[in-house]
């Protein structure tokens, strides 16, 4: 019985680890996009200041 519970806990922990890894990858991609868009905006604002 205890072994089944241990296996169930390990199974849930592995699933959580997998979900966290997926979220990290998605967040990295989204932040990369946000950084790119922010730098584009900064360049545009610098151009406006020059004009």
Secondary structure layout:
Elements: H1 2-50
Largest β sheet strand count, sense and barrel closure = none
Report the end-to-end length measured between terminal Cα atoms. Answer: 75 Å
Query: How many helices?
Result: 1
Taken from the alpha-carbon principal axes, the silhouette is rod-shaped
Domain module tally: 1
Report low-confidence residues grouped into runs of 5 or more: none
What is the number of strand segments?
A: 0
Protein name: DUF904 domain-containing protein
Keywords:
51 residues, mainly alpha, rod-shaped
Descriptive report:
This is DUF904 domain-containing protein. This protein has 51 residues and is an all-alpha fold. The chain has one domain (1-51). It is 96% helix and 0% strand. The chain is built from one helix and no strands. The chain has one helix spanning 2-50. The chain is rod-shaped and about 75 Å long.
Summarize the structure.
This protein has one helix spanning 2-50. It is mainly alpha-helical and 51 residues long.
């Amino acid at each position: 019985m205890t072994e089944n519970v241990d296996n169930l806990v390990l199974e849930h922990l592995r699933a959580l680890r997998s979900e966290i890894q997926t979220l990290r990858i998605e967040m990295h991609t989204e932040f990369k996009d946000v950084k790119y868009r922010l730098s584009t905006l900064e360049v545009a604002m610098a151009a406006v200041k020059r004009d």
